[in-house]
């Protein structure tokens, strides 16, 4: 599955669960940052090709670009939520 398709489903799920619009936008923005990074630096578009190392490199990239710890924590929270959603959709959780 394409990461962008997963993000669309995830965003729809957040709206159905009545998440605040601001929270949905934050999750969307943070995940889009990951999608852009994976495409630019690793040529990855499919969720099955993403590994833990890619996520760690993305976080390190954000740290190296001077992002504040509060942003990094929010970013990790967004990525964790997307990951859990993905695993639930696969029936693993």
Structure description:
There is one protein chain. This protein has helices at residues 3-16, 21-42, 52-64, 69-90. With 93 residues, the chain is mostly helical. Helix 1 (3-16) runs antiparallel to helix 2 and helix 2 (21-42) crosses helix 4 (69-90). It starts with a helix and ends with a helix.
List the helices and strands and how they pair.
Blueprint lengths: L2 H14 L4 H22 L9 H13 L4 H22 L3
Helix pairs in contact: 1-2, 2-4
Number of helices: 4
> Percent of residues in beta strands?
under 5%
- Multimeric organization: single chain
Rough outline = globular
CATH topology: DNA polymerase, domain 1
Under the CATH scheme, which class? Mainly Alpha
In a few lines, what is going on in this structure?
The chain is mostly helical and 93 residues long. Helices cover 76% and strands 0% of the residues.
Features:
mainly alpha, 4 helices, 93 residues
């Amino acid at each position: 599955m394409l990461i962008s398709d997963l993000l669309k489903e995830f965003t729809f799920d957040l709206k159905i669960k009545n998440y605040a619009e601001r929270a949905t936008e934050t999750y969307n923005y943070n995940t889009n940052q990951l999608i852009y990074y994976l495409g630019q630096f690793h040529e990855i578009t499919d969720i099955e090709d993403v590994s833990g190392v890619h996520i760690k490199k993305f976080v390190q990239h954000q740290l190296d670009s001077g992002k504040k710890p509060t942003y990094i924590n929010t970013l990790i929270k967004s990525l964790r939520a997307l990951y859990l959603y993905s695993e639930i959709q696969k029936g693993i959780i």
